[in-house]
Amino acid sequence: MAQASRFGAELLSPQEVTNIEVQKGGYKLLTLSDGSQLSTRSIIITTGVDYKRLNIDSLDNFTGAGVYYGAATTEGRTCQKLKVFIVGGGNSAGQAATYLSQFARQVVILNREKSLEVSMSQYLIEQLEALENVAVYNQTEIVEALGEERLEKLLLKNNTTGEEWQEEEVGALFIFIGARPHTDWLPINILKNKEGYIETGRELTRYDDYSKFWNKEREPYLLETCSPGIFAAGDVRAGAMNRVASAVGEGAMAIKFVHQYLSEH
Fold first, then answer.
1. The CATH classification of domain 57-177, taken from the options 3.40.50.2000, 3.50.50.60, 3.30.450.40, 1.10.150.120
2. What parts of the sequence cross the membrane (predicted)?
3. Would you say 85 and 154 are in contact if contact means Cβ atoms under 8 Å apart?
4. Using an 8 Å Cβ cutoff, are 145 and 61 in contact?
5. pLDDT per residue over 231-260, tens digit each?
């Protein structure tokens, strides 16, 4: 909700949905956290994800003030001529480093493993090696974040030798250590992949339970779940691009599919 407000959305009735029950006739019954219920013909699920956080208390003091979770594309242009750090060794960290290298003076990847090859695709590793302003500190972790009103310094540690050192003039810290989708509350008739992201469209046909829940002669629409009339958009959807612009586009597309679904009845 904070992100929606930040981008100008008006929240008229913020309520947590705890369950969705599909009833006869295609209606969906939503149970809210206060116990009240709503009946509707169609639903769009846009619950997003929670980015995993580092268990370092001092970092929490600078969230949004130099410390960012999964926000490289939105904050990148503010990093002009700065030295920025990225925590993570996966593809998302590599993609963020490639993007930020266009703006920052230097980009440093903090990777706790022996090398990026443990969890990053080779093509990304090669791209990073070709960038003169990108450095990789392997087997390195953050001990403490320092600063006044904003993040200014980082105390780092080599997790093999135990050596500690302080990095000065830290412009920003971007953390990419994974995310967890908000889907634990969904009923079993909404198929999810092993990471918990909602499956939609043709990808649903890969699942054995697909035919158990899908009761239409047509195939699911691109953003439709295995429960007809229930759609998913944005980061919570399996295969989403994890970009604000992409999520907005999927939301608009989902509205179009809702109209198509309603026209069937």
1. 3.50.50.60
2. none
3. yes
4. yes
5. 999 999 998 876 777 888 999 999 999 999
- The rounded Cα 17 to chain-centroid distance in angstroms is 20
Cβ neighbours of residue 111 closer than 8 Å, sequence gap 6 or more: 88, 89, 93, 136, 137, 138, 139, 140
In angstroms, the CA 73 to CA 99 distance is 7
Give start-end residues of each CATH 3.50.50.60 domain in the chain: 16-49+184-264, 57-177
Cβ burial 2-11 (10 Å sphere, 16+ → b, else e): eeeeeeeeee
Do residues 111 and 138 make contact, with C-beta atoms less than 8 angstroms apart? yes
d(CA 198, CA 191): 6
225: tokens are 């779940």
Alpha helices in 172-231 (DSSP H): 210-213
Whole-number pLDDT of residue 24: 85
Q: Name the DSSP letter for residue 103.
A: T
User: 157 in helix, strand or coil?
Assistant: strand
Distance CA 207, CA 212 (A): 10
Torsion of CA 225, 237, 243, 130, to 10 degrees: -130
- Is pTM beyond 0.90 here? no
